[in-house]
Design a protein that fits this description.
5-stranded antiparallel beta sheet; 27 strands; Palm domain of DNA polymerase; DNA-binding; 20 helices; alpha+beta
Length: 720
DNA sequence: ACGGCACGGGG
DNA sequence: GTGTACGTGCCGT
């Protein structure tokens, strides 16, 4: 019998691994033995002593072996320590660690996921197809066009009695499961739902806020009736630790995960990847990272790339150091300045332009890592003291003998993304491929950030510096080539250039692509584009612009309409003004349309002053970074936090507070704003919202003489 | 004027 | 279980 690896986790009591396979006939549970090992590196003598010491505390069969302990290095003596009791792994590692004085010995393969260990040991992987009897893989994770199982999904939602912020104490009104709604007495509804899950036997349960509310809530309500809410195919959940406050309609800012056994719970709210790339994206990431679907759904793309790096390191014979140990090399003060410049940014030509091409490099930073072999072990390696491969500006040497770990991991990902993108119009598979490409895009983006992250396993700040150094070099030289071909460079950010006029854009892209070995693609041609000035300095703001492509699509960056804290009314205003400006086909027509856009603004101001705007369009949302008592200034978000506090709800850093402004200047929190859960018919601060609308308009039109001050003056004279 | 605070991207 | 750095704008003090 064959099936796909749907789930994999340790049975901590039996010290065996549990596997769930999805077969066309249903789900199959299998258990398998695995003894994880941790490794210690030290001198031979110390390892022998360690072996004896371990025997004294009952750990037998520790064996000396030769293994690779750092990237690109030769094999060293290590002691392989079998861990028979899964639950004791961390404490055993801590004990061994405590036996060594500073740097006397180091530990490996301690903080490896159990599922990943098992997969690497067995040659299986998550969502891969396998022969169930004998546990043999029938699949290869590198396959691009792989077989995907039919997975049965169940959409779970609850309706709760109560107003404002739902709590565990509110009784259940109904449960919805796909298109079915179960209602009636609470205990009957819960009972019915459990039997429905048993009968339907879904592979995936989808929720919104399942981790933070729905699942703990259902369990709590069931317990009140003496029932046990079991939603997995096996009893028990795999709940991670987490503090369980109940605030603002959800538990905590980092809720404990509620992972089922043998069945996948995907909490859309808790899954960045699902939101971006759906189930096809999750499956792609699961296969590449070897992390089960349910787990990868809750991890960031950064964790996924980290897992892929671990896989590659283990497959190429390396042990994984417990904590990262590549210290940042010595640098002089001058070198620090030269290195820390980040991505290159041209100063944009502020204002309006037409006939503009935007060109972007394909995954520039990952492509640089692959093409220039940038990896922690390839920079200033000991094996190539005379290497001619030198990073521009900062002069690091790059290994010319071996391909580094990071390029080995990235190369297939770049390739897959390219293939998926090229097949996005395939009538049968295109939609899925596009989602897979999206998931990979995020993996690639975060890989760069990870190289500079101090806790990354395979991070090294010099990689980060080298990548941006190459990036600047490539962008500056590309701009020069463009100029030599008759284009005017209007703006450039990291991997993109905006070019005006000139000759054959396709030939230019081909020439630059060939020069650097990285594809330069045409993003589009703008009928017009506006680069906005910085409000404070007046020179070009680096990342704030809006423009209209030839196909009628608008591209917006950095303006209120793109910001999550802007109230809907301001977003609508800007969108409507932009729709109005979209009638213009070139710069001159744009200028002629500006007065019409101002009339749109006036309509919004009048509507606000009329007092009839619905509260939902006025809600401001801010993410808070500290608790109420830690705030030193009294402002709108603090006022809203105080209201929630007054009613017994606390927000954790990382959560968002939502409110409507009632009286902007007030020093009393209940007069100043109204937190969204307590909204009644409170009205709003009409002049404050008019001001926000005027600011939103000025943000778009300041290059055309309509500064915020002038708009205010115009407003004043119109009202007189 | 200064400093606290929040946001951004890609499609 | 975890991407960073930093430019930008608003607003309270």
């Amino acid at each position: 019998m064959r099936g796909w690896v749907l789930d994999c986790y340790p049975d901590m009591d039996a010290d065996r691994m549990v596997l769930w396979f999805k077969t066309p006939g249903g789900a199959v549970r299998v258990v398998d033995d695995m003894t994880p090992h941790i490794y210690v590196h030290s001198s031979r003598e110390r390892l022998d002593k360690l072996k004896n010491d371990l025997a004294m505390i009952g750990v037998k069969d520790a064996e000396r072996e030769k293994r690779r302990i750092s990237l690109g290095d030769d094999e060293k003596d290590v002691l392989a320590v079998p861990v028979r009791e899964y639950a004791s792994l961390q404490s055993l590692a801590a004990t061994i660690d405590s036996w060594g004085r500073y740097r006397e010995h180091s530990l490996y393969n301690v903080d490896l996921r159990m599922d990943q260990r098992y997969f690497l040991h067995k040659g299986l992987f998550a969502m891969g197809l396998a022969e169930i009897d004998g546990l043999r893989s029938l699949d290869a994770w590198r396959r691009i066009d792989y077989p995907v199982p039919m997975l049965k999904g169940l959409e779970l939602g609850v309706k709760v009695r109560g107003t404002g912020i739902p709590t565990m104490d509110d009784p259940l009104i109904s449960i919805s499961a796909n298109s079915i709604t179960l209602d009636g007495p609470e205990d009957a509804v819960l009972e019915e739902f459990m039997s429905l899950v048993r009968e339907e036997d879904p592979d995936i349960i989808y929720t919104d806020k399942g981790d933070s509310f729905v699942l703990p809530y259902l369990q709590h309500r069931a317990s009140l009736h003496g029932m046990n809410m079991e939603l997995g195919r096996e009893r028990g959940e795999r709940t991670s630790r987490g503090k369980s406050y109940f605030t603002y309609g959800r538990i905590v800012y980092k809720p404990p995960a509620h992972k089922l056994r043998g069945r996948v719970h995907i909490d859309r709210e808790a899954s960045f990847t699902y939101g971006e790339a759906g189930l096809p994206g999750l499956i792609e990431m699961s296969r590449l990272s070897h992390i089960p679907l349910q787990d990868i759904s809750r991890l960031s793309p950064g964790s996924a790339i980290s897992a892929m790096q671990v896989n590659e390191a283990v497959r190429s014979g390396h042990l994984i150091r417990w904590k990262k140990n590549l210290p940042e090399g010595f640098k002089t003060a001058g070198a620090l300045i030269a290195c820390d410049r980040g991505g290159f940014i041209y100063e944009p030509r502020v204002g309006l332009h037409d006939d503009v091409w935007e060109v972007d490099f394909f995954s520039l930073y990952p492509s640089i890592m692959v093409r220039h072999n940038i990896s922690p072990e390839t920079l200033n390696c000991a094996c190539c003291p005379r290497s001619p491969l030198i990073v521009p500006e900062i002069g690091y040497r790059i290994c010319e003998k071996r391909t580094g770990l990071i390029p080995r991991v990235l190369e297939p990902i770049l390739n897959r993304r390219r293939v998926y993108k090229s097949m996005k119009d395939d009538p049968r598979k295109g939609a899925n491929y596009q989602l897979r490409a999206k998931a990979l895009k995020w993996v690639l983006v975060t890989c760069f950030g990870y190289t500079g992250y101090r806790n990354a396993r395979f991070g090294r700040i010099e990689c980060h510096e080298s990548i941006t150094a190459y990036g600047r070099d490539i962008l500056v030289r590309s701009a020069r080539i463009a100029e030599s071909r008759g284009f005017e460079v209007l703006h450039g950010i990291v991997d993109s250039l905006w070019l005006h006029g000139g000759g054959d854009i396709h030939r230019l892209c081909d020439e630059i692509s060939a020069e650097f070995g990285i594809p330069l693609n045409i993003e589009g041609r703008y009928r017009w584009i506006v680069f906005l000035p910085s409000v404070s300095t007046g020179v070009g703001a680096l990342n704030r612009y809006y423009g209209l492509f030839d196909d009628g699509e608008l591209k917006l960056r950095g303006i209120a309409a793109r910001r999550r804290d802007a109230p809907a009314i301001v977003e609508e205003l800007q969108q409507e003004m932009l729709q109005c400006l979209s009638q213009a086909g070139n710069a001159q027509e744009f200028i002629d349309t500006v007065p019409e856009a101002l009339l749109v603004m006036d309509d919004y101001a009048a509507e606000l002053r009329g007092g009839g705007v619905a509260a939902e369009r006025l809600i401001v949302r801010k993410r808070i970074s500290r608790r109420l008592e830690e705030h030193t200034r009294f402002n709108d978000p603090v006022a809203a936090l105080r209201q929630l506090h007054d009613r017994g709800f606390e927000l954790e850093p990382g959560q968002s507070v939502e409110y409507v402004i009632l009286d902007s200047g007030s020093g009393r929190s209940w007069d100043r704003v109204r937190a969204a859960p307590f909204l009644a018919d409170d009205g709003y601060d009409r002049e404050k919202y008019v001001e926000l609308v005027h600011r939103g308009a000025a943000e778009l039109l300041s290059p055309f003489g309509w500064s915020f001050q002038r708009i205010r003056g115009r407003d004043g004279s119109q009202r007189r």
